[in-house]
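[Amino acid chain]
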Amino acid sequence: MKTRRQFLSDIGCGLGASALLSTFDRFSRLEAVAAPGDYRALVCLFLAGGNDSNNTVVPYDEYASYQAVRGSTLNLPKDSLLKVSAASQKAAFGLHPALAELYPLYGQGKLAILANTGPLAAPLTRDEYAAGAPRPDNLFSHADQQALWQSAVSSSVDPLARTGWGGRTADALAPLNAVDFPMVVSTAGVPLFGTGGRARPLVPGTTLQGFGTDAASTARYAALRKLLDLESGATLVDEASAITGSAIDDLDDLVAALAKGPKPATVFPNSSLGRQLATVAQVVAVRETLKLNRQIFFVSLGSFDTHAGQLGTQQNLLSQMSQALAAFHAATVELNVESAVTTFTLSDFGRTFQPNSGGGTDHAWGSHQLVLGGAVKGGDFYGTYPRLALGGPDDAASEGRWIPTTSVDQYAATLARWFGVGPAALPSIFPNLGRFAASDLGFLR
């Protein structure tokens, strides 16, 4: 049998919109607040498991060197690639053929590629790596690397490692929202990314419907609220009850706003990611009703840990991503927030350039990420594309584990600056940022 504390923990971390009753008391107070001004939103798409970016972005001009290493097991035929130019790299590349829906957005200047980025303690060369220079903790580990990407803190013993850079950004910009409503919304559980010193993500799930208004549903809701209002005499339990009660109130407010607000007409694919991004679009659509100037969203797509059978698995996953992201971008256009919403990808790590014996790849390090939106200076690459040589100057060993040439700190700080974080506040959010030459990579207007 679960204890009361375990029960509260479960509902506090996993509350979905199906676990609430739509009430309007607190929401009516929100309506008294002045209308918001400048609106901006960040949407983080986490590709869980470690996407193989060596096949997401393929060298077109030097295809022969790519094919020689990838072999018949993993190479994508050159004539299947979606060719793009990258003026910054003075080269042409090919996007994975599954990215067909995103391909036109690159040509329209709405999609950019950030090359070879990843967690770093400080700038690092192959020789320095071999000599034992500082590097992030527990490289090539799923859990640790997911935490590094989401926290932008290279040491697990740093107190800030218990928070995410999205959450810390929400802490810093909380005054921009004149109402006490969570800035961070996640459709993929409670991520480290959205957890700050004060900020906690709201987790509505993807159904966005109330608990119900029938007698049984109303009784269950009332019983839950009564349980949460009981004082146990144990401080931690009472605080957990208060947090859970506040989360229910926030979900009530959201459902009430959705009931009154516009509904996007854009059709989303009926996939896991499609449903998540449809939820995000619905929440963005009621931003004015909620009186919010800043919002941060977290969505996720899993199964990228392709140690075997990679070609088919990645084809399906990237196709789902491409269709869902293209639909979401179309929704931002429909809602007239195309230049106010920036979507970006993160992933555990890249994967080895050299295939393994099972038709897949193994855990690596640096990877390429996508940035999408009307404020993006797209149609180009940012950062430095690695030299695809096993044991070469960008390889941490001999399997094609690229040492990042751009840090997560720089990537995240560029997004945070666009979102409204001033230069003076950046070091409190990204403690390692001062170790790198640039805090703004220039991919946002």
Notes: The mean pLDDT is 87.
